[in-house]
């Protein structure tokens, strides 16, 4: 790759913008002497519950753990099926397997690339226990429809919100229709800490209570243990997240504004498809994902962008079921055609988008893209 002119992430720029608050928050935790399950975690969990409108929020080690801990708390395990997107980050499927359940992979909607509603309906069997829709690239799945399906079939909904912190539907919030919402705070997410972190939120008291025990060696009182694990969001990361949570809506607004610049500048480029945002939805562009109309052009276009100093990437160029060795003896069922998911994998390119990206840099990306010759 040529020297990078337009990077993919702006972590250091973001840190510089909030340095005084972050440094103080870290120093406060260090001087408090409480680093694990201390007051900074409790404070952040309360703030997260207030932000999301949920009754309970629980910090855990990462987004993958949030997903399987939520499934375990809902008694989802061996013999149960969980329906999810074939075009997700690998972790969603890993989490289903860690819970011991069978992952049922279904196709993407042809426009939004979130989970396809008809494909969910067609995948349901008497073993289905839950749907785990992924709010892919920063756009909420069609939750009212998913809730209807869940109610008709007595299923849980575990929302994988790792890519959509701060997104919303048209007149609905993330979590409004789900039983549990799980998120990741790994640094590259819209709300990211300085390392790994995750959380879930829910109105279900039993999920809150069970995950609090499971994350801490099955303990809710000193020296008392039942079956559990170690998966805690530490206080340094929680303190960082408390600072960043105050900025998330403004940061997401910047992403939306940059997406508009891309939408406008690229609307006449005939060899790519631009991301589709459902009318009225707050798509917060965790990724600005374009697709080449001809999959054979994708790698060439990506190389061309990289050669021009644009750190474009792919998310995700190999669908879960196309990974080498898949499924490694793990329980999985592919339901129906995965045509849209596969098209997405073979043609996707993520253009740089982050709150600190300058409009000039976005315009440079547009100009370079327009200059691409097949
Ligand atoms: C859709 C999705 N689900 C789950 C995860 C897992 O999160 P983590 O890396 O924090 O375990 C991620 C991101 O990493 C993700 O993008």
Structural domain count = 2
Number of helices: 13
Number of extended strands: 11
* Overall CATH class of the largest domain: Alpha Beta
List the helices and strands and how they pair.
Layout (H helix, E strand, L loop, with lengths): L10 H7 L1 H14 L6 H14 L3 E5 L2 H11 L7 E5 L5 H8 L3 E5 L10 H7 L4 E5 L10 H11 L2 E5 L19 E5 L13 E5 L2 H10 L20 H11 L2 H19 L5 E2 L14 E5 L5 H10 L24 E3 L4 H9 E4 L7 H12 L4
Parallel strand pairs: 2-3, 2-4, 3-10, 4-5, 5-6
Antiparallel strand pairs: 1-7, 6-7, 8-9, 9-11
List keywords for this structure.
374 residues, alpha/beta, Aspartate Aminotransferase, domain 2, binds pyridoxal-5'-phosphate
What do these coordinates show?
The chain is of the alpha/beta class and 374 residues long. It has 2 domains: 12-245, Aspartate Aminotransferase, domain 2; 248-370, Alpha-Beta Complex (Aspartate Aminotransferase, domain 1), CATH 3.90.1150.10. It contains 13 helices and 11 strands. The strands form 2 sheets. The protein has an 8-stranded mixed β-sheet, sandwiched between helices. A 3-stranded antiparallel β-sheet has the order 8-9-11. Strand 2, helix 5 and strand 3 (102-106) form a beta-alpha-beta unit. The chain is globular. 48% of the residues are buried. The model has no long low-confidence stretch (mean pLDDT 97). The structure holds pyridoxal-5'-phosphate. The site of pyridoxal-5'-phosphate has 15 residues, from helix 4 and helix 5.
